[in-house]
Structures are given as structure tokens and as C-alpha cells.
Design goal:
The protein is an alpha/beta fold. Helix content is 51%, strand content 11%. It has an eight-stranded mixed sheet, sandwiched between helices. Helix 4 links the parallel strand 4 and strand 5.
């Protein structure tokens, strides 16, 4: 079975590595000649440290590199059974690529998008065979992150989903099916993890208080530190995208985040963030209250997603633990605290919230 990859940036090359390391022949290309020319060297540079640490044999490295075949154009991917695009995150670019590929591939060839924010149905619109289009959303860095969200739009063929899921699983990934809705699972359900921390910040709590409370509750990183790691600008764009798509206070774009981006305090990439270069201090006396507040909103968002259908509670829990490295999933949070306590916490938050945020804490019927 041959896998095709379009786009040889960090994500595309990482996806190519995943399948090449699993023994698949990978045909990969990029519109930029320099990206094509440097791809094998960049892949070797990524794998060499693993060999040096003893985590990978030299033979395995060479086998992975030998499975990667750089080709000049997307049309050269025609022998592939599955083609994954990891190009510019714009709808016209992805539609144009898939339209051009349709002219040279077999009708049964699967076209997968690695989009994290666009509608898979919209990408498939206008194609002769929209039924073969699906989402394979890898997380960055693709070789290290176990989770892949398998996204079906309303017309996706079941056989295409099965084959794409099987190929990805045999490449060592945990594949979680999810519907074609804004944010899929992880990016959507992550919003309250960040958002409620920002609400607390605007209410006067310190970044250290917020993050140290989550560390005390068993989290490996606090929400504001995670924004610093990913980038405040990226977090802002993701939140704005969901707010535009879903238009609900659960995806409210807090002024604290907008101000951070406006100031250029983007986190690791700028050297200063909500906490960076500092680290969280000791947890405050009410750390458990802060953690419960954030966890209650996490559980609530997951409950809304589950109520919409197309995904399981187990799938949501597993996706959040793998994609965000949470110690427990939203439904495990509810089981730990009890549904009554989550409901009471959300009701109290709603009663105290300003008018424009009260419905943020409503639960599904």
C-alpha cells in the first residue's frame, strides 16, 4: 500500500515519517522546490538524535529514509491508495489541490485533509467523488503525538473511512472517529480549559494561582502555561474561529487573550507570556475550587458535543487525554466529582457571571 503526502513543512514531513517508519512506501511532494530538496536531510536530522539516545537503530533510520520518495508534483502521487494533504490552511488552496488530484487518480483513491479548522464537507464540495474525502487530523509533532481524529462529512464513504482508519492505526496511531463539526473533538473541548482560566484572570486571579491549582489537581501543565507553549496568537485564532462558527458564549474571546497578542507577549516564541519566563508558584488555599471550576466547564463542553451525536463519551475522553495530555477526560471528571457537583458548580458560575456570559454555563437538556 502506497501513501501520498502533499506538503513537506513540519506537519507534512512528520506525517510522511509516521507512515515511512511503519514500512509504507511514501510518495511526498511540496509546491516549494526547496522543501522537496531538503526533506530527506530534515528527516535524517530529526531521527539522528533518537539513534544517538538508543531509541532508534541505525537500520530503522535508514529503512525509514528509504521508504520516503520525494516526487516533483502532486500528479506523481497517482499510485497512492491514500493521499494526505498538509498544505496551507485555506479552503481555496485545499479545494484546488483536491480538484487537480481528481484528474489523475483512481476513483477509489482516498483524499484526506489534515485540516484542524476547516469543514471537511466544504473541502469536498465540487469534487466528482466527494465520498472519498475525509479528515485525518494529526497533532503536532505528528511522529510523537498518538492521536489522530478521523473526520467524516455527511457523504463520506464507509469503506474509505475504514481503510484510512486501518492504515493510520497500523502506523501506530490511536484513531478516534468524530463528526465534521468546528473544532472536531480536541480543539473544541479544549476551549474551556483555556477560556475559564482567562475568565479567572480577568476576575483578578494571578496566572500563578490558576496554573498551580491545575498542577495540584494532577495536570502536567496549566492552561496559561499551555497557551504560552502553543502561542497566544494561535490560541486566539482557534478561539475566534470557533466563536465565528458556533456563535456561543462558551467560545467567548476574552480581552485578556486579545491584549496579550496585541502586546506581542505570545509565550515561548516571543520570550514572554502569561507566565513565561516565570514558573507557577505554590497553589493558593482555594486551589481545589479553581480546578473544579475549570474541570466543570470542560465536562460541560464535552456533554454538549456528545449530545450532538457522532462521537462517544469514551472517544472524547481518550481524545482529550491524548491530544491535550490531560490526566482524565471530561466524563471521567464528571464521574470523579459526581454529576450533581458539576451541575451545582455550573449553576453557581452562571448566577455570578455577567449577563453576556451567563449562557456559557448552561448544560444540555
Amino acid at each position: 500500500m502506497i501513501i501520498g503526502v502533499v506538503g513537506l513543512g513540519t506537519m507534512g514531513l512528520g506525517i510522511a515519517q509516521v507512515f515511512a517508519a511503519a514500512g509504507y512506501k511514501v510518495l511526498a511532494t511540496d509546491a516549494v522546490e526547496a522543501a522537496r530538496a531538503t526533506a530527506p536531510t530534515r528527516l535524517r536530522a530529526a531521527l539522528d538524535p533518537r539513534v544517538a539516545k538508543g531509541a532508534l537503530s541505525q537500520d530503522a533510520l535508514e529503512a525509514t529514509l528509504s521508504n520516503l520518495h520525494i516526487v516533483p508534483t502532486p500528479q506523481d502521487l497517482s499510485p497512492a491508495a491514500l493521499i494526505i494533504e498538509a498544505i496551507l490552511e485555506t479552503l481555496p488552496a485545499k479545494q484546488a489541490l483536491f480538484t487537480s488530484l481528481e484528474a489523475c487518480i483512481a476513483p477509489q483513491t482516498i483524499l484526506a485533509t489534515n485540516t484542524s479548522s476547516l469543514s471537511v464537507a466544504a473541502i469536498a464540495q465540487g469534487l466528482k467523488h466527494p465520498e472519498r474525502v475525509l479528515g485525518l487530523h494529526f497533532f503536532n509533532p505528528a511522529p510523537a503525538m498518538k492521536l489522530v481524529e478521523l473526520v467524516a462529512h455527511a457523504g463520506t464513504n464507509a469503506a474509505a473511512l475504514t481503510l484510512a482508519g486501518t492504515l493510520t492505526q497500523t502506523a501506530g496511531k490511536t484513531v478516534i472517529p468524530c463528526p465534521d463539526r468546528p473544532g472536531f473533538i480536541v480543539n473544541r473541548c479544549a476551549r474551556p480549559f483555556y477560556g475559564e482560566a482567562l475568565a479567572l484572570l480577568e476576575e483578578g486571579r494571578t496566572p500563578s494561582d490558576i496554573d498551580s491549582s491545575m498542577l495540584a489537581a494532577g495536570y502536567k501543565i496549566g492552561p496559561l502555561s499551555l497557551i504560552d507553549l502553543i502561542g497566544a496568537d494561535i490560541n486566539l485564532a482557534a478561539t475566534q474561529g470557533l466563536q465565528t462558527a458556533l456563535n456561543h458564549p462558551r467560545y467567548h474571546v476574552f480581552d485578556a487573550l486579545k491584549a496579550q497578542v496585541a502586546a506581542g507577549h505570545l509565550g515561548r516564541k516571543s520570550g514572554q507570556g502569561f507566565l513565561l519566563p516565570a514558573q507557577p508558584g505554590p497553589p493558593p488555599p482555594d486551589a481545589a475550587v479553581i480546578a473544579l471550576r475549570i474541570e466543570a466547564t470542560l465536562a460541560n463542553e464535552a456533554a454538549w458535543l456528545l449530545a450532538e451525536g457522532g462521537v462517544s463519551a469514551e472517544g472524547i475522553d481518550q481524545a482529550l487525554k491524548l491530544g491535550l495530555n490531560l490526566p482524565r477526560g471530561p466524563f471521567e471528571i464528571t464521574a470523579q466529582h459526581t454529576a450533581d457537583k458539576i451541575t451545582a458548580t455550573l449553576a453557581e458560575l452562571g448566577s455570578k457571571a455577567p449577563a453576556h456570559l451567563k449562557s456559557r454555563y448552561l448544560q444540555p437538556a
